[in-house]
Amino acid sequence: MTALPKSIDETAALLRKQDYVAERSLATALFLALKMERPLFLEGEAGVGKTEIAKVLARTLDRPLIRLQCYEGLDIASAVYEWNYQRQMVEIRLVEAGGKASRDDLEKGIFSRRFLIKRPLLEALDHGSKEPPVLLIDELDRTDEPFEAYLLEVLSDWQVSIPEIGTIRAERPPIVVITSNRTREIHDAVKRRCLYHWVNYPDATRELEIVRCKAPEAPERLSREVVAFVQKLRGMDLFKLPGVAETIDWCKALTALDAVALDPATVDDTLGVLLKYQDDIAKVRGPEAAALVTQAKAALAA
Ligand SMILES: Nc1ncnc2c1ncn2[C@@H]1O[C@H](COP(=O)(O)OP(=O)(O)OP(=O)(O)O)[C@@H](O)[C@H]1O
Ligand SMILES: [Mg+2]
C-alpha cells in the first residue's frame, strides 16, 4: 500500500510514474480530493483521460479498483446489492428437510450477509478495516435521476440501508472518481459533494509527452507531426473532435505502417483512426488534410 501524496507535485509525480501526464490543475484537484476525502467529479470530452485517472490512481496507491459503469435503467440490484435467490431457495429446502428450524429462524437465516451479493457501491463501502478502495462511477450522465438521488445519499453518509439487515456504513470513505461526458447536466446537489474538474484537451507539449509514454515505439519526428496535426485539427468545426486516445491510436497505426513522418496520402488513408464520423472524414480528406500537414510541419519548423 502506498501512502497518499503529500503535495500537488507529489500527486503529479505519482501519476507520471504510471504514464499519466496530468496538467497542474488536475493534480491539484486530485490532491485536494484525496486530502479532504471528497469525491472527484471529472467532466470533459471523450477520450481525454477521465476514466484512466481512476485506474491509474488505484494502481499507484495499490488499492482495489471497483468500477460502476452507469447506463440508463441502472438499478439498486445492479449497483448496490442483490439477494442470492438460488442459494436462499436451496437453504430453505435444506432447512425444511431437516424439519427443525422455526419460520423466524429460517427467515433470519436466509436474509443474512451470507446470502447477500455485493454490487460495486456496497462493495466499495463494506471494505472492513482494509484500506479504502478506489470507486470509479463511470459516465454518470447515462443514468437517470432516481439513481442520482440514491447516489447522493450514499455520497453524503457513506452508508446504505438494507431493510432486512440494517445499515452498512463505511468505516472510512472510498476514494471516489465520478466521470461524465456531459450528455446531460448532473444535479447540483451531487456536484456540491464533489470537487469538480473539467478535463481539457491537452496542449501540444503535454500531448507529445503523453504520446511518448503511450506509444514509445513511434519515431520522434512522427509523434511531433501527429501531435501538431491533431492540435490543428481540433481547431476545425467537426462533429466529433479527436481525443487523446485517438492521437495515441493514430501514432501506433502510422508506426505499424512504417511511417516516419506525415504525408498527405497516408493521412487520407488512415483518417478513420482519428475521426469516427463519415461527414468529418469527408470534410478533412484531400486538400484540407494536405493543408493541415503543411501547417503542422511549418509549426514544428518554426
Ligand atoms: N493525460 C493522459 N496521460 C496519459 N494517457 C492519457 C491521458 N489522457 C488520455 N490518455 C489515454 O487516452 C485513452 C483514453 O482515456 P480514457 O478512456 O480515460 O478517456 P475518457 O475521458 O474516459 O473517454 P470517454 O469519455 O470516451 O470514456 C487511455 O488509453 C489513456 O491512456
Ligand atoms: Mg471514460
Q: What does this protein structure show overall?
A:
The protein is an alpha/beta fold and 302 residues long. It is 52% helix and 13% strand. The protein contains 15 helices and 9 strands. A hairpin with a 3-residue loop joins strand 6 (159-162) and strand 7 (166-169). The radius of gyration is 24 Å and the shape is elongated. Bound molecules: adenosine-5'-triphosphate (ATP) and magnesium ion. Residues 50-51, 138, 179 line the site of magnesium ion.
Write the layout of secondary structure elements.
Blueprint: H1 8-17, H2 24-36, E1 40-44, H3 50-61, E2 65-69, H4 76-79, E3 81-83, H5 85-98, H6 103-110, E4 116-118, H7 120-125, E5 134-138, H8 145-157, E6 159-162, E7 166-169, E8 175-180, H9 188-192, E9 195-199, H10 204-214, H11 220-233, H12 244-256, H13 264-274, H14 278-284, H15 287-301
Parallel strand pairs: 1-8, 1-9, 2-5, 5-8
Antiparallel strand pairs: 3-4, 6-7
The structure holds adenosine-5'-triphosphate (ATP) and magnesium ion.
Magnesium ion binds at residues 50-51, 138, 179.
Strands ordered across the widest β-sheet: 2-5-8-1-9
What structural class is derived from the secondary structure elements? alpha/beta
Principal-axis shape: elongated
Total strand count, please?
Answer: 9
Tell me the span between the first and last alpha carbons: 47 Å
Order of helices and strands: HHEHEHEHHEHEHEEEHEHHHHHH
Counting H and I runs of at least 4 residues, what is the number of helices?
Answer: 15
Round the Cα radius of gyration to an integer and report it. Answer: 24 Å
Mean pLDDT, to the nearest integer, reads 94
The biggest sheet, with number of strands, parallel, antiparallel or mixed sense and barrel status, is: 5 strands, parallel
Given as residue ranges, the uncertain stretches (5+ residues, pLDDT < 50) are none
* Share of helix, binned: 40-55%
Report the β-strand fraction as a percent range. Answer: 5-15%
